[in-house]
TrEMBL record:
One of its GO terms (cellular component) is membrane. It comes from Lentinus tigrinus ALCF2SS1-6. Residues 24-43 are annotated as: Disordered. The keyword Transmembrane helix applies. It is a multi-pass membrane protein. This is MFS general substrate transporter. Belongs to the major facilitator superfamily. Monocarboxylate porter (TC 2.A.1.13) family. Keywords: Membrane, Transmembrane, Transmembrane helix. The chain crosses the membrane at residues 52-74, 94-113, 125-144, 156-177, 183-207, 260-286, 298-318, 324-343, 350-367, 387-408, 429-452. SUPFAM superfamilies: MFS general substrate transporter (SSF103473).
């Protein structure tokens, strides 16, 4: 399919599932205008449209997962002495629940969004509605003074809206790719890391100059403006995507398979473990390592930056050495990084943790959609993806709040300056690191066993899977 001089992105995304070379060449060299309209559900889209879809997916994850990934900045502010929320100071467990409701619903909302996608031909309406609800949730959070109000706005409204905005693109895109599916989804999900890289320093600057209320209002309005052209890329579902999104319920035959159960458990455990560093990276750098809040936001930006590059690199690597192989290694090395570098960390080791955890954690997030298609088939992608992302959402709700309970209530700044208090706080953070590493390690064993069971079910072991 490759031709000299062809754009590298077109080369990466060239091979479409269930389309033979003759049909593909006809789609490229034939009636381009008709293909670009992409309004015939029985046809396949042109390469130009597929590239546009991947770009839209990249931008969508840029601000959905990007906003989720910088919740640590909100966490640090809401629990600090400068907080505008009554009863939130020092309450990491209660405040982290706001973020986990939002990010958890981003994923677990698939349980009701995917059936909507399956029943709706023009999914643009779902995406636009979600973007509006999501933006309203962020905007209304600027008026909150109580924690329960944040739960409803920055948690519930934001989470429901972000899920409706997130899944139309995430459900349709993988169905159009086969051999290069890992690279395509790596590019889409790399937007999450770029979003965190950009939004972390930008939001910190808004917070410092405008205050929390106007920072949230600017974020909400920006989110709405950006999401309208992104959602407009979506058109009627084409043949491959129509088949992939037609089934919304997981069949009992799949449920009874050991791969399905273990992959669900692994997804739950990884989501629980992955939220802990994201939410507590900033607070650790300020409370334990005595970095400034601007340095804390910079470390968060570095983490998301390397995570973004890693998602693309892991996707490309996975297409060559095996998607499941790459995902298994990424989860195990994520756990090793937590145990080796976060536990009882000093400044040097914590910077290394920030970088290396960003690299390894990106692999699982980029490869889960592609391995779902590989293990269960494209015809089951929508139903299995919806259920497993629902489980991931529950895992997100489980992870950071329990870490907050382990950490307990504590004061920032001068109130925690005594050495014995600092030692006690460091011990609590070490307990959080052990808890986090154990979740990730258990997830690694689950996805490794899925790899073995899938090979057995397919009739024999293959090193490239």
């Amino acid at each position: 399919m490759d031709r000299p001089g062809q754009d590298i992105l077109l080369r990466t995304l060239s091979q479409v599932h269930s389309v033979n070379p003759a049909e593909d060449d006809a789609g490229i060299n034939g009636n381009i205008n008709g293909a670009d309209r992409a309004d015939d559900s029985t046809s396949e889209p042109s390469q130009a449209y597929k590239c546009l879809l991947v770009l839209a997916g990249f931008m969508m994850t840029f601000h959905v997962i990007g906003i989720n990934s910088i919740y640590g900045l909100f966490q640090e502010f809401y629990t600090s002495p400068e907080t505008n929320i009554h009863g939130a100071e020092g309450q990491d467990a209660l405040v982290s629940l706001v973020g986990t409701i939002g990010s958890g619903l981003t994923w677990s909302g698939s349980i009701f969004v995917n059936p909507m996608i399956g029943k709706t031909d023009n999914v643009k309406l779902i995406s636009l509605s979600g973007a509006f609800i999501m933006s309203v949730g962020i905007f209304l959070a600027s008026f909150c003074t109580q924690l329960w109000q944040l739960y409803l706005t920055q948690g519930l409204l934001y989470g429901i809206g972000s899920s409706m905005y997130y899944f139309p693109l995430m459900s349709l895109t993988p169905a159009y790719f086969d051999r290069n599916r890992g690279a395509a989804m790596g590019i889409v999900l790399a937007g999450a890391g770029v979003g965190g890289l950009v939004l972390s320093p930008v939001f910190h600057a808004l917070l410092a100059r405008l205050g929390i209320r106007w920072a949230l209002r600017v974020l909400g309005l920006w989110n709405l403006v950006l999401s309208i052209p992104i959602s407009s890329v979506l058109t009627k579902k084409h043949g491959a995507a129509a088949g992939a999104t037609g089934r919304t319920r997981v069949s009992m035959a799949l449920v009874k398979r050991g791969t399905f159960i273990l992959q669900s458990v692994g997804a739950f455990l990884f989501a629980a473990g992955n939220t802990v560093p994201v939410y507590f990276l900033t607070t650790y750098s300020i409370s334990i390592l005595s970095y400034s809040s601007s340095t804390g936001s910079l470390l968060l930006a570095v983490n998301t930056a390397v995570n973004s590059v890693a998602r693309i690199a892991m996707g490309i690597l996975a297409d060559r050495v095996g998607r499941q192989n790459t995902m298994v290694l990424s989860v195990f090395f994520s756990a090793v990084t937590v145990f080796a570098l976060w536990y009882d960390s000093d400044r040097g080791r914590f910077i290394a943790f920030t970088v290396l955890y960003g690299i390894w954690a990106g692999g699982y997030n980029a490869l889960l959609p592609t391995t779902i298609t590989e293990v269960y088939g494209v015809q089951n992608y929508s139903s299995v993806n919806g259920f497993i992302y629902f489980i991931r959402g529950l895992g997100a709700l489980f992870g950071a709040p329990i870490a907050g309970v382990i950490l307990g209530s504590h004061q920032r700044g001068a109130g925690s300056s005594k050495m014995f208090t600092m030692d006690a706080l460091r011990t609590r953070y070490n307990d959080v690191a052990v808890y986090d590493g154990a979740l990730l390690l258990a997830s690694g064993f689950c996805v490794a066993y899925v790899r073995w069971l899938d090979a057995r079910d397919k009739g024999g072991w293959s090193w490239r899977a």
